[in-house]
Design goal:
Layout lengths: L25 E6 L5 E5 L4 E6 L9 E6 L8 E6 L4 E7 L3 E8 L4 E2 L6 E5 L15
Antiparallel strand pairs: 1-2, 2-3, 3-4, 5-6, 6-7, 7-8, 7-9
């Protein structure tokens, strides 16, 4: 186990390691259809994709999926069975948008062509918005 994780008490037969470092205020993670990790970096206003290329349970590369967002938090995927499209839903502090996501490239196909699902109130004590597509 990584020395920085020595405070963890794991059951016998379990282990833990640090998957990624250098993220700015990571909040929510999800897995894309290919199994890559997507993480919202709230303070940075970005969604990052972390790729473990050599399958050693440590991210080898970090790619920006989208930037310029307003405190992104919640993330979820939905596969449109009728049109065979993968959608990435992103909850920002003031809205939820969906984007067409290409699971082969791990990118949003056209970030400027998002579809606004709902606007959310920005007042109150919490800026985070958690979503689940069901």
């Amino acid at each position: 186990m990584d020395e920085t994780l020595s405070f963890l008490k794991l059951p016998q037969g379990f282990s833990a390691n640090i998957f990624a470092k250098g993220l700015l205020n990571p909040r929510v993670i999800t897995f894309d259809p290919k199994g890559d990790v997507l993480v919202s970096e709230t303070k940075n206003g970005t969604i990052a994709r972390l790729v473990d290329e050599n399958k050693d349970n440590i991210a080898d590369n970090k790619f920006t999926v989208i930037s310029g967002l307003n405190k992104p938090h919640g993330l979820d995927f939905y596969f449109g069975p009728r049109n065979k499209t993968h959608y990435l839903y992103i909850a920002e502090t003031h809205q939820v948008n969906r984007y067409i996501y290409n699971p082969v490239t791990g990118q949003i196909t056209n970030p400027d062509k998002s579809e606004n699902i709902v606007n959310t109130p920005v007042d109150g004590r919490h800026f985070t918005r958690t979503i689940v597509v069901g």
